[in-house]
Amino acid sequence: MTTSADQSQQLSERVSEAFANAKPLHLRGSGSKDFLGEAVNGETLDVTGHAGVVNYEPGELVMTARAGTPLAELEAVLDESHQMLAFEPPHFGANATLGGTIATGLSGPARPFAGAARDFVLGCRIINGQGQILSFGGEVMKNVAGYDLSRLMAGAYGTLGVLLDVSLKVLPVPRTQVTRVFEHTAAQALQQISDWQRKPWPITGAYWEDGKTYLRLAGATSSVESACEKLGGETLDDDGPFWRAVREHERPFFAQSDRPLWRISVPPAAPMLDIDGECVIDWGGAQRWVQTDMEAVALRRVAKEAGGHATVYRGEAQPRFHPMGESILALQQRLKKSMDPAGILNPGRIYPEL
């Protein structure tokens, strides 16, 4: 178990010093997400020592923890009360931290059915680019309906502030979980999943690979059993390890490393994309993982025409993230300037202009 420690003041002083000397900082936890985005040239600011659960109220479905707290430890604490992080954050490493999880904004197979990481952020404390400690949101469920700066931290990759503490909404573990398996082509899977999602069924995962569709249902036993009776298909025994492998990119598809790996986000109903390469489908069709040697410009054109965008997870394609339009970039730059006026926090991690 990680030692609980509040290093807010020490971290704040480090950022203040960097601001005064205009020295860039590379914000870092365990390094499990270092492969995402661009490398940062700057002095490392290690937040792993700022760790520990600050507050956990199972009856209120709220947990607050420090950014350096290992994700596995948080999940173990939640499991004792039969609760969970419903957005199923991928770890991508044994020591993945809460801060890195929120900073990258990653969500697992339940994302389209339960919500994204940012949807579960109730509040946070951060250090801005001047070394000031700021608080946003809180530990009350009503904040879920509003939108505040705390949610902007999800997916900002540390470019807007150093995460100190995060308050999250947590949910009970479903009483029953069943995964049914069907034989489909990719096109058939997309159509079938679209049809299934119109039903009042407790779907929490829909994944396709290598000619098979995997549909996960979780919730009240009666609801799951009723849906299974109508669905048909074969039951996948002990499905927990399967979905963990999907979440952690440990399925055989992801083990192939000779070609670039792309994450393509599109509307769920988008047809199969005209891309030459191997593909798996997650998020009920909204997330397509593709291994291809296709040129980045051409691939991103296909993604954009389908209403989506593409990010390179493995490979040397530049830029790593889908280019932003001028108006969106201008907005992001203004936000960056307000939170980090000297541009010292993870400069260039997402885009050179940020």
Question: Can you tell me about this structure?
Answer:
The chain is α+β, with helices and mostly antiparallel strands. It folds into 3 domains: 8-172, Uridine Diphospho-n-acetylenolpyruvylglucosamine Reductase, domain 3 (2-Layer Sandwich), CATH 3.30.465.10; 176-247, Alpha-Beta Plaits, CATH 3.30.70; 252-314, Alpha-Beta Plaits (2-Layer Sandwich). Helix content is 27%, strand content 25%. It is built from 11 helices and 17 strands. The strands form 5 sheets. The protein has a 5-stranded antiparallel β-sheet with strand order 3-4-8-6-7. The protein is globular and about 65 Å long.
CATH architecture of the largest domain: 2-Layer Sandwich
Mean pLDDT: 94
Kindly give the count of domains: 3
Q: Could you tell me the number of beta strands?
A: 17
Count of separate DSSP helical elements: 11
Give the class from helix and strand content and strand pairing.
alpha+beta
Gap between N and C termini: 36 Å
Strand order of the largest sheet: 3-4-8-6-7
The ordered H/E elements are: HEEEEHEHHEEHEEEHEEHEHHEEEHEH
CATH topology tier name of the largest domain: Uridine Diphospho-n-acetylenolpyruvylglucosamine Reductase, domain 3
List keywords for this structure.
354 residues; alpha+beta; Uridine Diphospho-n-acetylenolpyruvylglucosamine Reductase, domain 3; Alpha-Beta Plaits; 3 domains; 5-stranded antiparallel sheet; 4-stranded antiparallel sheet; 11 helices; 17 strands; globular
